[in-house]
Amino acid sequence: MENLDSRLLQLANVFEKRLAGDLNARFAHHAGHMAPERWLCLELAYLVNTEGPAVGLPGWRAGLERRNVDVTLYSPDESEAIYLEFKLVPADCWNNWREVYKDLGHSQIAKTGSKPVAHAAVCILYDHILPKGKPRQSSLNKYKEYIGRIPDKPGIFRPLDDPNLPDLYLAVEAPKFRLIWNGPNEKPLLDTWIRLLWVTLAPSEIIA
Known about the structure:
The chain has helices spanning 7-20, 24-33, 37-51, 97-103, 137-147; strands at 61-66, 69-74, 81-88, 120-126, 155-157, 168-170, 177-182, 188-201. By secondary structure, the chain is α+β, with helices and mostly antiparallel strands.
């Protein structure tokens, strides 16, 4: 947690509890029909804009898609901004972690344009989502190995086998919670566990 802005810790914890609790059914609905990153951005921004003091950010406001960043948090006098990017990292699309490195500004993956380096990436991890079909056992074994690379508690990890990429850091404990949504005739559109990972570059890799 030493390299995540401390003001984000309370926000991350409150947001995760809302998604596992009051917002769970809505989250499952959206994830069952479409990629949910945009909805998650909207909900996080709404939380900051309506309950800033409760999440440790009194007077702050959130903006969406400013300078091509998913969510930007602005201090009360707008002298400071915190940039957050949201990324899906399901087991069957594991190479999406390269986009996480890019958002965090790692020098081995070039950034484009004037997009700011994100202070953190909020990564949505799940096993796989129906109705893609039942994966082969070899795929399931591979997914299990990938997911095993992510620590249960805050700590350093390396999601990809690329030696040119550094360690990442899981900054907030991210317990699993379940998402279930049934379609017509109670046929499941989605039934999976999910974790919301607040990730930064490992401390030695942080760009000053």
